[in-house]
């Protein structure tokens, strides 16, 4: 079929454009040459060794991990409350309220960053710290968390919770025994997405960072020194591998969760 | 027999929708009670108010004489089998059935003994370790039953428990459910929109329309003495003819029906009293007289308009002079019975005892 061939080649082109830069990352990371250019010089781990020597980088990684973990827990907890309320109860002004919560999904991050800076420094008179970054990250992660958890809560049959209460459990023990295990794939998915968003986020972190830069801010700083670029490539390679491992693990757990509950798999984010 | 559930003027509104309008009924201890009615008439809502999942807008629900206002579902002596069965998908069959025992002070061996007993009761011996999602519809339904019965509730509430099953399995489960109810002696309240199911299984049936109980009676009385046209139409098929009645000698009524003539019926045949305006007669209470030797109490000439063949039965649509709508007559297709054709001139035989006068 002609249109079939056309489509196939389109898909291949798309994939090449999407992943070519990503493939270049490890290519230059393992290249022993000092400049990013073909032909490649030789194969070696020297840029990775160099990474291990940069003290400030380690602090940045640690800061980023701290921020990403706290952000993902806070955003998922808040997302859980909001999506639970949105799927189970109706209250006056529900539509507009949910709309407002979801706005950061489409709001440019620079606006979030600038307005947060104005509020935090000018209005509240607070200093910048990792908690200001966390605040900003939670703000942009909550909509993603809600979007994921809404699906999980909506596909949860209300009569399962009612049956548990009918059989003698309280509202809280029902949440622990029935609701939580059944929406767990959604929770893991939300934790993971929030974690990755926070880890990758640059603009908010750049504006709201105090004395401790995050990894993304640190990388941006490194890019100004051409000598450091191969090391950045090595760092990127590590982040790529870690992300892929995390996503694979989450998909594995998500599928296992679905299989156990016998729910039809309607596809996740990956 | 004493009432276990007393519904007094129960009202329930969802915003502007009045789902229940002044429902009053008494459900007796150990009874198999059915709520029958068309979709949206409030059956589920009534069941849920008894279970405690809906707050009342008005009225009182008594269980065992105690007002249930403010009593949560987990503290009511009633358990529910949900329409979707609500089998916990992340627990296996044994864990599902044992769920209600979590808060009981029982040893592990006592619990597994009880689970085994409950599973035996519903015919699922040895299913303890099966995963919930490997069960068929009928098996899920049995697990839901075992899970609710393990607590030995005073009342078991069942919301259309058989509607998801195919016809064969449904009929089998109807008998089993009835047997189980007799065996455990627990009061069952069954919601159904299937009139046949309600007739087969129940001691008493409440027919509901539009948030109200239209009639509450035994299956026999409901079928033979429906109070109004709506009930009569919902349960089985009935021919309706306009009629007017007047009091005859004590205990009897004289009814005039255009096309059929003057008929005397006993007062017991007029569930709605002398003011009834319709006469009803079921198709199987009419016979087609095939030859001159066959006679009946009362006879009316007619002409066959249409024949619907159902295998064991045939339904004949018969035009009778003076009656506006053709009458529906049903006959068993017994061996050697002469076949009828369209436009055959026949006589319909009936008896005054088969008539009822209703609203
Ligand atoms: N939670 C609710 N919110 C708003 N309206 C409701 C709610 N539950 C029921 N109703 C309305 O109350 C009426 C009775 O509903 P109910 O579910 O009791 O009917 P039913 O007899 O069980 O019908 P079915 O045979 O279709 O299950 C319907 O008009 C329904 O739309
Ligand atoms: Mg219903």
Considering the chains and any ligands shown, give keywords for the structure.
heterodimer, A: 270 residues, mainly alpha, MetI-like fold, 11 helices, 0% strand, globular, B: 359 residues, alpha+beta, Rossmann fold, OB fold (Dihydrolipoamide Acetyltransferase, E2P), 2 domains, 6-stranded mixed β-sheet, 5-stranded antiparallel β-sheet, 8 helices, 21 strands, binds adenosine-5'-triphosphate, binds magnesium ion
Task: Give the structure's gist in a few sentences.
The complex is a heterodimer of chains A (270) and B (359). Chain A has 270 residues and is an all-alpha fold. Chain A has one domain: MetI-like (MetI-like fold), CATH 1.10.3720.
Description:
The complex is a heterodimer of chains A (270) and B (359). With 270 residues, chain A is mainly alpha-helical. Helices cover 76% and strands 0% of the residues of chain A. Chain A has one domain (44-261): MetI-like (MetI-like fold, Orthogonal Bundle). Chain A is globular. The model of chain A has no long low-confidence stretch (mean pLDDT 82). Chain B folds into two domains: 3-229, P-loop containing nucleotide triphosphate hydrolases (Rossmann fold, 3-Layer(aba) Sandwich); 237-359, Beta Barrel (OB fold (Dihydrolipoamide Acetyltransferase, E2P)), CATH 2.40.50.140. Chain B has helices at residues 43-51, 93-98, 108-121, 137-149, 167-184, 195-201, 219-224, 229-234, and strands at 3-14, 17-28, 32-36, 58-63, 66-67, 78-81, 155-159, 187-192, 204-209, 212-217, 239-242, 244-247, 252-257, 261-266, 278-281, 287-289, 298-309, 313-320, 327-332, 345-350, 356-358. In chain B, strands 6-7-8-3-9-10 form a six-stranded mixed beta sheet, with helices on both faces. The model of chain B has no long low-confidence stretch (mean pLDDT 90). Chains A and B meet through helix 7 and helix 8 of A and loops of B. Magnesium ion binds at residues 43-44 of chain B.
């Amino acid at each position: 079929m002609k249109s079939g061939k056309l489509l196939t080649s389109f898909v291949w082109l798309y994939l090449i454009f999407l992943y070519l830069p990503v493939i270049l990352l490890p290519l230059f990371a393992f290249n022993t040459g000092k400049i990013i250019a073909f032909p490649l010089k030789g194969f070696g781990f020297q840029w990775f060794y160099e990474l291990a020597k940069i003290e400030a980088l380690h602090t940045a990684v640690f800061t980023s991990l701290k921020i990403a973990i706290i952000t993902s827990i806070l955003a998922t907890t808040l997302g859980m409350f909001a999506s639970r309320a949105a799927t189970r109860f109706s209250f006056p002004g529900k539509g507009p309220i949910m709309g407002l919560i979801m706005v950061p999904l489409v709001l440019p991050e620079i606006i979030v960053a600038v307005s947060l800076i104005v509020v935090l420094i000018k209005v509240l008179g607070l200093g910048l710290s990792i908690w200001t970054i966390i605040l900003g990250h939670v703000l942009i992660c909550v909509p993603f968390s809600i979007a994921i958890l809404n699906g999980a809560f909506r596909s949860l049959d209300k009569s399962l919770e009612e049956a548990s209460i009918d059989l003698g459990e309280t509202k809280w023990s029902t949440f622990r025994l029935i609701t939580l295990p059944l929406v767990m794939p959604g929770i893991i998915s939300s934790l993971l997405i929030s974690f990755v968003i926070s880890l990758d986020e640059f603009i908010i972190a750049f504006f709201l960072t105090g004395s401790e830069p995050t990894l993304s801010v640190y990388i941006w700083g490194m890019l100004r020194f051409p000598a450091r670029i191969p090391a950045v490539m090595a760092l990127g390679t590590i982040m790529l591998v870690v992300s892929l491992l995390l996503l694979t693990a989450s998909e594995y757990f998500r599928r296992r969760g679905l299989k156990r509950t016998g729910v039809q798999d309607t596809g996740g984010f990956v | 027999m004493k009432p276990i559930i007393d519904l007094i003027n129960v009202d329930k509104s969802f915003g502007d929708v009045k789902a229940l309008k002044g429902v009053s009924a008494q459900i007796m201890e150990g009874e198999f009670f059915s709520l029958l009615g068309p979709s949206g008439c409030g059956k589920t809502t009534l069941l849920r108010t008894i279970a405690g999942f809906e707050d009342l807008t008005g009225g009182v629900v008594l269980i065992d004489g105690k007002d249930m206002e403010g009593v949560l579902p987990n503290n009511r002596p009633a358990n529910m089998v949900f329409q979707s069965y609500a089998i916990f998908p992340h627990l296996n069959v044994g864990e599902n059935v044992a769920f209600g025992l979590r808060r009981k002070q029982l040893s592990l061996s006592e619990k597994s003994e009880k689970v085994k007993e409950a599973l035996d009761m519903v015919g699922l011996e040895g299913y303890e370790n099966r995963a919930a999602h490997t069960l068929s519809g009928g098996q899920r339904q049995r697990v839901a039953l075992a899970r609710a019965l393990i607590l030995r509730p005073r009342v078991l509430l069942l919301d259309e428990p058989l509607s998801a099953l195919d016809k064969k399995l449904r009929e089998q489960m109807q008998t089993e459910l009835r047997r189980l109810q007799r065996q455990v002696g627990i009061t069952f309240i069954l919601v159904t929109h299937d009139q046949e199911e309600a007739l087969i299984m129940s001691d008493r049936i409440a027919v509901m329309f539009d948030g109200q109980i239209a009639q509450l009676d035994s299956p026999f009385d409901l079928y033979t003495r429906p109070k109004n046209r709506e009930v009569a139409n919902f349960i089985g098929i009935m021919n309706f003819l306009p009629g007017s009645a007047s009091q005859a000698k004590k205990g009897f009524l004289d009814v005039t029906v255009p096309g059929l003539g003057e008929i005397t019926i006993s007062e017991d045949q007029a569930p709605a009293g002398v003011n009834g305006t319709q006469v009803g007669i079921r198709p199987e209470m009419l016979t087609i007289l095939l030859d001159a030797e066959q006679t009946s109490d009362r006879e009316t000439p007619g002409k066959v308009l249409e024949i619907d063949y159902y295998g064991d039965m045939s339904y004949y649509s018969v035009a009778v002079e003076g009656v506006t709508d053709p009458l529906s007559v049903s006959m068993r297709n017994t061996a050697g019975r002469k076949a009828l054709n369209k436009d055959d001139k026949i006589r319909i035989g009936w008896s005054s005892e088969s008539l009822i006068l209703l609203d």
